[in-house]
Design brief:
The chain is built from 1 helix and no strands. It starts with a helix and ends with a helix. The longest helix has 83 residues. It has 86 residues and is an all-alpha fold. The radius of gyration is 37 Å and the shape is rod-shaped.
Length: 86
């Protein structure tokens, strides 16, 4: 009976050790997941900030193109009206 108690106690200790190692492995996975998620989120934020910067640069370019297009159209309209007057 005493031998059986000793084996039972040894089994309990080994089971506890196994469960602790399993929990440690799972928490490491959780930490890795959170680290990867944080890296992904940071990359997304950086991507969107860069996209906003590019779009703001394009906005000034488009405003300039718009004003130049209006000037060209006004010039051709003036030339056309002048040509019709002859």
């Amino acid at each position: 009976m005493r031998e059986l108690d000793r084996l039972h106690h040894k089994l309990q200790l080994e089971t506890c050790d196994f469960l602790l190692k399993l929990a440690e492995t799972e928490s490491k996975r959780d930490v890795d997941f959170m680290n990867n998620f944080h890296e992904f989120y940071t990359a997304q934020v950086h991507f969107h900030q860069e996209s906003l910067s590019v779009l703001q640069g394009l906005q000034s370019y488009m405003n300039r193109v718009d004003s130049e297009t209006v000037e060209v159209c006004n010039f051709f309209f003036f030339c056309f009206v002048f040509w019709l007057s002859f």
